[in-house]
Amino acid sequence: MLAALMILPASTYAKKDKGQGLKVISYNIRVGSANDGTNSWQYRYPASAMMIDDQKPDIFGLQEALPMQFEYLNDILPDYKGVGVPRDDGKKEGEIMGIFWNKKTVKMIKWGTYWLSETPDKPSLGWDAACKRTATWALMQDKKSGKKFFYVNTHLDHVGWEARKNGLAIIVDNIARMNPKGYPMVLTGDFNMSIERPEFDDLKKQMKNTREVAFKTDHHNTFNNWGKESDAIIDYIWFSGFSSCQEYQTITKPYNKRTYISDHYPVMATLIF
Protein backbone atom coordinates (compact mmCIF):
# COMPACT_ATOMS: atom_id res chain seq x y z
CA MET A 1 0.00 0.00 0.00
CA LEU A 2 2.83 2.40 0.89
CA ALA A 3 4.55 1.87 -2.44
CA ALA A 4 1.33 2.57 -4.30
CA LEU A 5 0.82 5.80 -2.40
CA MET A 6 4.34 7.02 -3.11
CA ILE A 7 3.84 7.14 -6.88
CA LEU A 8 0.99 9.68 -6.66
CA PRO A 9 1.82 13.36 -7.23
CA ALA A 10 2.68 15.30 -4.10
CA SER A 11 -0.04 17.80 -5.01
CA THR A 12 -2.61 15.09 -4.33
CA TYR A 13 -1.76 15.09 -0.64
CA ALA A 14 -1.43 18.85 -0.40
CA LYS A 15 -4.88 19.42 -1.83
CA LYS A 16 -6.42 16.69 0.29
CA ASP A 17 -4.77 18.02 3.46
CA LYS A 18 -6.32 21.42 2.82
CA GLY A 19 -9.75 19.84 2.64
CA GLN A 20 -10.13 20.57 -1.06
CA GLY A 21 -10.42 16.98 -2.25
CA LEU A 22 -13.59 14.90 -2.20
CA LYS A 23 -13.17 11.15 -2.68
CA VAL A 24 -16.27 9.65 -4.30
CA ILE A 25 -17.22 6.03 -5.03
CA SER A 26 -20.09 4.62 -7.07
CA TYR A 27 -20.85 1.00 -6.23
CA ASN A 28 -23.46 -1.41 -7.59
CA ILE A 29 -23.43 -3.93 -4.76
CA ARG A 30 -25.52 -6.58 -6.63
CA VAL A 31 -28.95 -7.27 -5.18
CA GLY A 32 -28.74 -9.57 -2.18
CA SER A 33 -31.66 -11.79 -3.21
CA ALA A 34 -29.94 -13.01 -6.39
CA ASN A 35 -28.98 -16.67 -6.62
CA ASP A 36 -25.38 -16.29 -7.70
CA GLY A 37 -24.04 -19.55 -6.31
CA THR A 38 -20.78 -18.95 -4.47
CA ASN A 39 -21.06 -15.26 -5.41
CA SER A 40 -24.34 -14.89 -3.51
CA TRP A 41 -24.54 -12.19 -0.84
CA GLN A 42 -24.27 -14.67 2.02
CA TYR A 43 -20.71 -15.51 0.94
CA ARG A 44 -19.41 -12.11 -0.14
CA TYR A 45 -20.97 -9.59 2.24
CA PRO A 46 -17.83 -8.87 4.31
CA ALA A 47 -15.92 -7.90 1.16
CA SER A 48 -18.14 -4.87 0.46
CA ALA A 49 -17.53 -3.42 3.91
CA MET A 50 -13.81 -4.17 3.62
CA MET A 51 -13.66 -2.28 0.32
CA ILE A 52 -15.22 0.85 1.83
CA ASP A 53 -13.03 0.62 4.93
CA ASP A 54 -9.94 0.31 2.73
CA GLN A 55 -10.82 3.02 0.19
CA LYS A 56 -12.23 5.43 2.78
CA PRO A 57 -14.35 7.59 0.48
CA ASP A 58 -15.81 10.82 1.77
CA ILE A 59 -19.10 9.88 0.13
CA PHE A 60 -20.41 7.01 -1.96
CA GLY A 61 -23.48 6.08 -3.96
CA LEU A 62 -24.85 2.57 -3.57
CA GLN A 63 -27.05 0.85 -6.16
CA GLU A 64 -29.15 -2.36 -5.95
CA ALA A 65 -28.96 -2.58 -2.17
CA LEU A 66 -31.86 -4.34 -0.48
CA PRO A 67 -32.73 -3.03 3.00
CA MET A 68 -30.69 -5.85 4.60
CA GLN A 69 -27.60 -4.83 2.61
CA PHE A 70 -28.16 -1.15 3.28
CA GLU A 71 -28.54 -1.75 7.01
CA TYR A 72 -25.51 -4.06 7.09
CA LEU A 73 -23.26 -1.28 5.79
CA ASN A 74 -24.91 1.25 8.10
CA ASP A 75 -24.19 -1.00 11.08
CA ILE A 76 -20.73 -2.31 10.18
CA LEU A 77 -19.18 1.01 9.09
CA PRO A 78 -19.20 3.23 12.20
CA ASP A 79 -17.76 6.28 10.42
CA TYR A 80 -20.53 6.28 7.81
CA LYS A 81 -24.25 6.97 7.69
CA GLY A 82 -26.58 6.27 4.77
CA VAL A 83 -29.90 7.59 3.48
CA GLY A 84 -32.32 6.31 0.86
CA VAL A 85 -35.70 4.60 0.50
CA PRO A 86 -36.73 1.26 -1.05
CA ARG A 87 -37.94 1.87 -4.59
CA ASP A 88 -40.98 -0.43 -4.68
CA ASP A 89 -43.06 1.26 -1.98
CA GLY A 90 -40.83 3.98 -0.57
CA LYS A 91 -40.93 2.28 2.83
CA LYS A 92 -39.79 -1.35 3.13
CA GLU A 93 -39.76 -3.11 -0.23
CA GLY A 94 -37.23 -2.96 -3.02
CA GLU A 95 -33.74 -1.81 -3.82
CA ILE A 96 -32.34 1.38 -2.33
CA MET A 97 -30.33 3.96 -4.21
CA GLY A 98 -28.36 4.94 -1.14
CA ILE A 99 -26.02 7.81 -0.35
CA PHE A 100 -23.46 7.15 2.38
CA TRP A 101 -21.13 9.79 3.77
CA ASN A 102 -18.16 9.81 6.13
CA LYS A 103 -19.41 11.63 9.21
CA LYS A 104 -15.89 12.82 10.02
CA THR A 105 -15.40 14.65 6.73
CA VAL A 106 -18.86 15.48 5.35
CA LYS A 107 -22.07 16.88 6.85
CA MET A 108 -25.58 16.10 5.63
CA ILE A 109 -27.86 19.14 5.24
CA LYS A 110 -30.95 17.69 3.53
CA TRP A 111 -31.91 14.88 1.17
CA GLY A 112 -34.76 13.26 -0.75
CA THR A 113 -35.74 10.65 -3.33
CA TYR A 114 -37.80 10.85 -6.52
CA TRP A 115 -39.00 8.22 -8.97
CA LEU A 116 -37.96 8.14 -12.61
CA SER A 117 -41.47 8.12 -14.03
CA GLU A 118 -44.35 10.36 -15.08
CA THR A 119 -45.22 10.68 -11.37
CA PRO A 120 -41.85 11.23 -9.67
CA ASP A 121 -43.29 12.17 -6.29
CA LYS A 122 -44.62 8.68 -5.54
CA PRO A 123 -43.54 5.05 -6.08
CA SER A 124 -44.24 4.39 -9.75
CA LEU A 125 -43.09 2.56 -12.86
CA GLY A 126 -41.89 4.71 -15.73
CA TRP A 127 -42.46 4.11 -19.45
CA ASP A 128 -41.10 0.73 -20.62
CA ALA A 129 -39.04 0.07 -17.48
CA ALA A 130 -38.82 -3.44 -16.07
CA CYS A 131 -38.53 -2.06 -12.53
CA LYS A 132 -39.36 1.05 -10.57
CA ARG A 133 -36.36 3.35 -10.66
CA THR A 134 -35.32 6.19 -8.36
CA ALA A 135 -32.73 8.88 -7.80
CA THR A 136 -31.64 9.94 -4.33
CA TRP A 137 -30.22 13.42 -3.83
CA ALA A 138 -28.52 15.20 -0.96
CA LEU A 139 -27.15 18.65 -0.15
CA MET A 140 -23.89 18.11 1.71
CA GLN A 141 -21.10 20.18 3.22
CA ASP A 142 -17.39 19.40 3.24
CA LYS A 143 -16.30 19.93 6.84
CA LYS A 144 -12.74 21.08 6.20
CA SER A 145 -13.41 23.62 3.48
CA GLY A 146 -16.96 24.47 4.52
CA LYS A 147 -18.04 24.20 0.88
CA LYS A 148 -21.50 22.85 0.05
CA PHE A 149 -22.20 20.45 -2.80
CA PHE A 150 -25.04 18.36 -4.19
CA TYR A 151 -24.84 14.62 -4.64
CA VAL A 152 -27.25 12.54 -6.77
CA ASN A 153 -27.22 8.74 -7.03
CA THR A 154 -29.28 6.63 -9.45
CA HIS A 155 -29.70 3.34 -11.33
CA LEU A 156 -31.32 3.51 -14.76
CA ASP A 157 -33.41 0.66 -16.08
CA HIS A 158 -31.70 -2.37 -17.62
CA VAL A 159 -34.45 -3.14 -20.17
CA GLY A 160 -36.38 -0.09 -21.36
CA TRP A 161 -34.65 2.43 -23.62
CA GLU A 162 -37.49 4.91 -23.18
CA ALA A 163 -37.13 4.53 -19.43
CA ARG A 164 -33.40 5.19 -19.64
CA LYS A 165 -33.87 8.21 -21.90
CA ASN A 166 -36.72 9.79 -19.98
CA GLY A 167 -35.39 8.83 -16.57
CA LEU A 168 -32.09 10.52 -17.28
CA ALA A 169 -33.94 13.55 -18.66
CA ILE A 170 -35.73 13.89 -15.31
CA ILE A 171 -32.40 13.76 -13.49
CA VAL A 172 -30.82 16.35 -15.82
CA ASP A 173 -33.80 18.69 -15.40
CA ASN A 174 -33.79 18.30 -11.63
CA ILE A 175 -30.04 18.89 -11.40
CA ALA A 176 -30.47 22.21 -13.16
CA ARG A 177 -33.53 23.21 -11.12
CA MET A 178 -32.34 22.14 -7.66
CA ASN A 179 -29.11 24.12 -7.77
CA PRO A 180 -29.85 27.84 -8.29
CA LYS A 181 -26.78 28.84 -6.25
CA GLY A 182 -24.48 26.85 -8.50
CA TYR A 183 -22.97 24.54 -5.90
CA PRO A 184 -20.61 21.81 -7.11
CA MET A 185 -22.57 18.73 -8.19
CA VAL A 186 -21.82 14.99 -8.25
CA LEU A 187 -23.89 12.35 -10.05
CA THR A 188 -23.12 8.66 -9.60
CA GLY A 189 -24.81 5.50 -10.76
CA ASP A 190 -25.24 2.47 -12.92
CA PHE A 191 -26.60 3.94 -16.16
CA ASN A 192 -26.87 0.63 -18.04
CA MET A 193 -25.52 2.10 -21.27
CA SER A 194 -22.23 3.05 -22.88
CA ILE A 195 -20.99 6.61 -23.07
CA GLU A 196 -21.58 6.82 -26.85
CA ARG A 197 -25.35 6.60 -26.45
CA PRO A 198 -27.28 9.76 -27.47
CA GLU A 199 -29.25 9.58 -24.21
CA PHE A 200 -26.18 11.12 -22.56
CA ASP A 201 -26.10 14.18 -24.82
CA ASP A 202 -27.96 16.59 -22.54
CA LEU A 203 -26.08 15.41 -19.45
CA LYS A 204 -22.75 16.01 -21.22
CA LYS A 205 -23.76 19.66 -21.68
CA GLN A 206 -24.06 20.09 -17.90
CA MET A 207 -21.52 17.73 -16.35
CA LYS A 208 -18.16 16.05 -17.01
CA ASN A 209 -17.39 12.34 -16.94
CA THR A 210 -14.56 11.75 -14.45
CA ARG A 211 -13.17 8.84 -16.43
CA GLU A 212 -12.61 11.11 -19.43
CA VAL A 213 -11.16 14.20 -17.74
CA ALA A 214 -9.22 12.95 -14.69
CA PHE A 215 -5.48 13.65 -14.60
CA LYS A 216 -4.95 9.98 -13.75
CA THR A 217 -7.49 7.52 -15.15
CA ASP A 218 -8.10 4.07 -16.61
CA HIS A 219 -10.37 2.51 -19.21
CA HIS A 220 -11.26 -0.74 -17.47
CA ASN A 221 -14.72 -2.29 -17.84
CA THR A 222 -17.02 -1.69 -14.87
CA PHE A 223 -19.41 -4.63 -15.31
CA ASN A 224 -17.40 -7.79 -14.68
CA ASN A 225 -20.25 -10.34 -14.90
CA TRP A 226 -18.55 -12.49 -12.28
CA GLY A 227 -15.57 -13.03 -14.56
CA LYS A 228 -17.51 -14.00 -17.66
CA GLU A 229 -16.56 -12.13 -20.81
CA SER A 230 -17.64 -8.49 -20.57
CA ASP A 231 -16.19 -5.17 -21.70
CA ALA A 232 -19.18 -3.07 -20.59
CA ILE A 233 -18.55 0.35 -19.07
CA ILE A 234 -21.87 1.36 -17.56
CA ASP A 235 -21.01 2.82 -14.13
CA TYR A 236 -20.12 6.51 -13.95
CA ILE A 237 -19.16 9.43 -11.74
CA TRP A 238 -20.15 12.79 -13.24
CA PHE A 239 -19.38 16.24 -11.83
CA SER A 240 -19.76 19.98 -12.32
CA GLY A 241 -18.61 22.99 -10.33
CA PHE A 242 -15.36 21.40 -9.11
CA SER A 243 -12.07 22.80 -10.39
CA SER A 244 -10.81 19.40 -11.58
CA CYS A 245 -10.78 15.64 -11.14
CA GLN A 246 -7.46 14.49 -9.75
CA GLU A 247 -7.95 10.76 -10.24
CA TYR A 248 -10.39 8.18 -11.58
CA GLN A 249 -10.01 4.47 -10.82
CA THR A 250 -11.93 1.27 -11.46
CA ILE A 251 -11.42 -0.68 -8.23
CA THR A 252 -10.50 -4.22 -9.29
CA LYS A 253 -8.65 -5.08 -6.09
CA PRO A 254 -9.88 -8.30 -4.39
CA TYR A 255 -11.17 -8.16 -0.82
CA ASN A 256 -11.57 -10.98 1.68
CA LYS A 257 -9.88 -13.26 -0.90
CA ARG A 258 -12.75 -12.65 -3.33
CA THR A 259 -11.79 -11.75 -6.89
CA TYR A 260 -15.20 -10.13 -7.40
CA ILE A 261 -17.00 -8.40 -4.55
CA SER A 262 -19.97 -7.74 -6.89
CA ASP A 263 -20.79 -8.25 -10.56
CA HIS A 264 -19.79 -4.59 -10.95
CA TYR A 265 -16.47 -3.07 -10.00
CA PRO A 266 -16.73 0.00 -7.78
CA VAL A 267 -15.48 3.18 -9.46
CA MET A 268 -13.71 5.98 -7.62
CA ALA A 269 -12.91 9.62 -8.34
CA THR A 270 -11.16 12.37 -6.36
CA LEU A 271 -12.69 15.76 -7.09
CA ILE A 272 -10.99 19.05 -6.25
CA PHE A 273 -13.09 22.00 -5.04
Supply database-style keywords.
disordered N terminus; alpha+beta; 12 strands; 6-stranded mixed β-sheet; globular; Deoxyribonuclease I, Chain A; 273 residues
Oligomeric state as shown = single chain
Q: What does the main sheet amount to?
A: 6 strands, mixed
Do you know the CATH architecture?
Answer: 4-Layer Sandwich
Structural class: alpha+beta
SSE string, helix = H, strand = E? HHEHEHEEEEEHEHEHEEE
- The general outline is globular
Q: End-to-end span in angstroms?
A: 26 Å
Helix content: 10-25%
Helical segment tally? 7
**Which sequence of strands runs across the widest sheet?**
3-4-2-1-12-11
Low-confidence stretches: 1-19
Please give the number of β-strands.
Answer: 12
According to CATH, the fold-level topology is Deoxyribonuclease I, Chain A
The first-level CATH class is given as Alpha Beta
CATH superfamily: Endonuclease/exonuclease/phosphatase
Mean pLDDT: 93
Task: Please indicate the percent range of residues in DSSP E strands (runs of 2 or more).
Answer: 25-35%
Task: Give the structure's gist in a few sentences.
The protein is built from seven helices and twelve strands. The chain is of the alpha+beta class. The protein has a single domain, classed as Endonuclease/exonuclease/phosphatase (Deoxyribonuclease I, Chain A).
Produce the secondary structure layout.
Layout: H1 2-6, H2 10-17, E1 21-28, H3 41-55, E2 59-65, H4 67-76, E3 80-83, E4 96-102, E5 106-115, E6 134-142, E7 148-155, H5 161-178, E8 185-190, H6 201-206, E9 208-209, H7 210-213, E10 235-240, E11 244-250, E12 267-272
Parallel strand pairs: 1-2, 7-8
Antiparallel strand pairs: 1-12, 2-4, 3-4, 5-6, 6-7, 8-10, 9-10, 11-12
